[in-house]
Structure formats: C-alpha cells, structure tokens
Amino acid sequence: MRAKREYRNRGETEVEVLDALVDRAEEGMTVFELRAAVDADIDALESALADLKSDDLITVEETGGRVVIIPDDRVVPDPDEVGQDEGSLLDAVRKRFGL
C-alpha cells in the first residue's frame, strides 16, 4: 500500500519511508526494519525520519520492549479507497472521455 497522494510530494527517501510504514501501519517498524525496506543510506534515512517527525507524519513509540515508528493516521489511506484512483492509462482515458 502507498501513502496518500497528498503526502507523496516529498523527497524520495521520505516517500519510501512513508510507503514502508503504511504497509505495516498497525505494528510499526523499527529503524532496522526500515533500513532493510528503504533503499537509502543511514544518513538519508535519519534525515528523512527527522523531517517526517518534525512534520508530525510519524510517531515513535515503545511497544513490547521495541521502539517502533508508526505513520500518522492521516497518511494511511482508507482501505475502501485503495486502488480506486490507481488504474491503467486506458482506464484513465475511458473515464476522462466517459467511455
């Protein structure tokens, strides 16, 4: 799953972090899990996390003895809306021209 469209106009690493976190929104991810999921060096990851935290798009919580990062609810798309705006180019053309 991907973060909502309005949160995708950020840096590439920030978007990758948000997408990874949205996939595991309920349980969150540790920094090590994020490091494995995001194709960025540790400095870029650290910078992205700091920017996302300062914009209140992520929270850091201690859960079960683990420190996990969780996306803010407003970043996570509604499951009913997932895939509605994603489709093929042909679907977009059909919709645009009412076919």
H/E element string? HHHEEH
> What is the strand arrangement across the widest sheet?
1-2
Mean pLDDT, to the nearest integer, reads: 87
For this structure, the CATH topology is Arc Repressor Mutant, subunit A
What summary fits the major beta sheet? Answer: 2 strands, antiparallel
- How many domains? The number is 1
Q: Report helical residue fraction.
A: 40-55%
Shape descriptor reads elongated
Write down how many β-strands occur, each being a DSSP E stretch of 2 or more residues. 2
CATH superfamily placement: Winged helix-like DNA-binding domain superfamily/Winged helix DNA-binding domain
CATH class: Mainly Alpha
User: How much strand content do the residues show?
Assistant: 5-15%
Radius of gyration computed on alpha carbons: 16 Å
Number of helical regions = 4
The CATH architecture assignment turns out to be Orthogonal Bundle
Uncertain ranges: none
Give the class from helix and strand content and strand pairing.
alpha+beta
Distance, first to last CA: 28 Å
